[in-house]
Amino acid sequence: MLLSLSLRDFVIVDALDLDFSSGFTVLTGETGAGKSILIDALGFILGARADADVVREGATKADLTATFRVTEPLRVWLEDHALSGEGDEVLLPRTIAAAGRSRGWVNGVPVTAAQLKEAGAMLVDIHGQHAHQSLMQPAGQLTLLDAYAGHDELLTRMREAHAAWRDAKALWEEAVADAQKRAERTERLVWMSEELGDLDPKPGEWELLNAEHSRLAHAASIREGLSEAMERLSTGADELGSAMSRIESLVRWDESLNVLVETVGAAQDLLREASHETERVLDRDDVDEGRFEAVDRRVGRFFDLSRKFRVEPERLAALRDRVGRELLQLDQTADADALKAKAEEAEKRCREAAEELTSSRRKRAEALSSAVTDEMQGLAMKGGAFRVDFESAPLGAHGADAVTFMVAGHAGVGLRALQKTASGGELARISLAVAVITARVTPVPTLIFDEVDTGIGGATAEVVGRLLRRLSEDRQVLCVTHLPQVAACGKQHYRISKVTKDGVTTSAVHPLSEDERTKEIARMMAGSVHSKVILDGAEEMLRMGRTGPENKNDQS
Fold it and tell me: Does the pLDDT of residue 251 top 80, yes or no?
């Protein structure tokens, strides 16, 4: 679960540090106060794409940090990625620079945004205020059904089977369409393979060969130079010997000159050693004319093929390997009939995966339909019904299904497509019902609802609040809301407000005491007018939020 959130220079937040508890936490405030900023910050911390616009004006960067309690799936993931920290908490900082770059860490170790998303998927499930919009799209409806059904494994197999079919089909079609082109390419590759095979270049051979060729080609110059060097070394040694004798004659007058004697002596020894080594090299008989001719021929062959194939000599070995691989691939794609058979077999496996996915979808669709219908009864849609209808779709990476969410808002009306019948308020309530139901089957410990109660009011709002509170009995629930009935059901209550000082506007978050909660509920009920009647109503709403019919024993 989410334990703490720290923000620095984020949008209109100067500095903010919040601690969170288990159960149901509500966040309220006037329009434009920045209620959704906290949700946005969490999204960025958990890998969402961020740009410089989120950095507070005048600041160089935004610093965001969240601390979560580690779940068992996350613990395994952290260990697999060598990201484990101390204790049962995980620290997730992210920095977004005004220049546009961002960096993220897990327990102090730099990670990618993709890794943050992987971790975030095991920690938080965010239902945004526009989630109902996905309900209006067929693709969104299918995605939601799969999320409810837990089809991750089946979808993975479906995608893999479809990709295999697509690739096999492409190879077959290429084999049929490009037979002549392939034959011409094969002929050229065979010629190149034969040429390179005759040379048989080894990795790194060119560098060694080039060095040996240079040494053998300049053998005479090398010997001449070494002979001259040896002569000079011998002369130098003799000269140093004379110098040392002269210095030694002076030692009787200045004993400190012994150091100089030792130094000159050491130099004389080095010169003698160098002279001996030069003589040894000169005595070595390693100039083989036959070897030079062989090396010269091979160097010339390297140059010939380098020009012929337009690559550097040192890359001929890699070219030979690449030619071999391409020939092998062409051999594998040469038989159109065999490729057709492979494509047909891949299609068969793809359709089998789609049929398995369809079967599971239909079973889970019945459960989803029943669950949503039940929830609708308590959301001012008494007698209403919900059903998932299926149609066949072209076989693709997501199977061969198209689904339509059908709804009847109340008793006595027929089921029609959701996007054609539902009013704004009905759509919001159905969206909330679906969100709550899908949240029940997700394993993540923290659920966030960002103004998903838009379009709901009155007695329905009370039901929504109790619904969210009930959901928080076995996991952490955070809800940004504008409804006093929902806010009254919260266990923890934060008020977000805008503060303007010296012409600079910032957002502040304040945890509310019981008295402050009463005033905030009153504000949400009637604006800025806090009459005794309104305050009494707010107190009653808070009492009902704590001890309503579905929460009689909950006095938190």
Answer: no
